[in-house]
Amino acid sequence: MRPSVLSILPDLRTGPLAVLLVIFQASFIMTLASNVAFQASDVANEVSNVAFEASFATLQASIIAFEALFVTDEIPYAAYQAWFATPQASIVASWATLPPSLALGLDRDCQDTAGRIGFAARAP
């Protein structure tokens, strides 16, 4: 009768092989724990990336809102400039239609009036 394989192997519960088996099991458990910790770290890293992307999107939205504020601020200023340019254009157009002698006389009258106003302001 042939001996069985189990009878040839030493008893793994005692002796130096038992110590090696315990070390191997501990190493295997530590490897599994390290793998779980790595996966948890990977998940935490992904969560951090998502949070960073959300923060960056918020920053971009605030920059866009800030730029929109400038645009909406420029619209009334542009409307004011257009409103102010309309009478100026009509004045320039009306002066262009006057005969040169009359336009020159009006210009002298304006300068004379401005001079008298300035003189009155300086008078004691």
- CA radius of gyration: 47 Å
Number of discrete helical segments: 3
What would the principal axes of the Cα set say about the shape?
rod-shaped
* Element-level helix/strand string: HHH
Helix content: over 70%
Mean pLDDT value: 73
Largest sheet: none
Number of strands: 0
Low-confidence stretches: 118-123
- Seen as an oligomer or otherwise, the chain set is single chain
Give the structural class: mainly alpha
Distance between termini? Answer: 143 Å
Question: β content, as a range?
Answer: under 5%
SSE blueprint and pairings:
Layout: H1 5-8, H2 16-97, H3 100-122
Q: Which descriptors apply to this entry?
A:
3 helices, 0% strand, disordered C terminus, mainly alpha, 124 residues
Detailed description of the structure:
The longest helix has 82 residues, at 16-97. The radius of gyration is 47 Å and the shape is rod-shaped. Helix content is 88%, strand content 0%. It starts with a helix and ends with a helix. The protein has three helices and no strands. With 124 residues, it is mainly alpha-helical. The chain has helices spanning 5-8, 16-97, 100-122. The chain has a domain at 5-90. Residues 118-123 have low confidence and may be disordered.
Task: Tell me briefly what this model is.
Helices cover 88% and strands 0% of the residues. With 124 residues, the protein is mainly alpha-helical.
